[in-house]
Amino acid sequence: MKICVSAMGGSLEAKVSERFGRAPYFVVVDAENMKFTAVSNSAAGAQGGAGPEAVRQIAAAGAGAVLTGELGPNAKTALEAAGIKGVTGVSGSKTVRQALEEYLAGK
Q1: How would you list the strands of the sheet with 85-87, edge to edge?
Q2: Can you give the pLDDT at residue 48?
Q3: What is the structure's pLDDT at 33?
Q4: Structurally, how many domains does the chain consist of?
Q5: Beta-bridge partner residues of 67
Q6: 0.90 exceeded by the pTM?
Q7: How far is Cα 55 from Cα 52, in angstroms, rounded to an integer?
Q8: Residue 18 contacts residue 79 (beta carbons within 8 Å)
Q9: Which residues span the domain enclosing 48?
């Protein structure tokens, strides 16, 4: 499964972004081999609708789950419609790698 982490940068060592729709990057990681793709969030500076547009981007990247700090109501609705699991409460003090390892260990 591919897991998306909202991030401040485009690597596994980047800090987690606590705001999903406004995250500068999404790091989409294949949980089987830890290979990743960094996706620049084109919705980060949008006036409105950032959450649903961000969901569209990560769905196109094949993500089955999202790890982030917070999800707005529109992002939650869009994730549910896309069949993507949203996991909130991830601290911005963690790196993408740490967030992934914790999530995978708890599965």
Answers
A1: 36-40, 25-30, 2-7, 63-67, 85-87
A2: 86
A3: 94
A4: 1
A5: 5, 87
A6: yes
A7: 5
A8: no
A9: 2-106
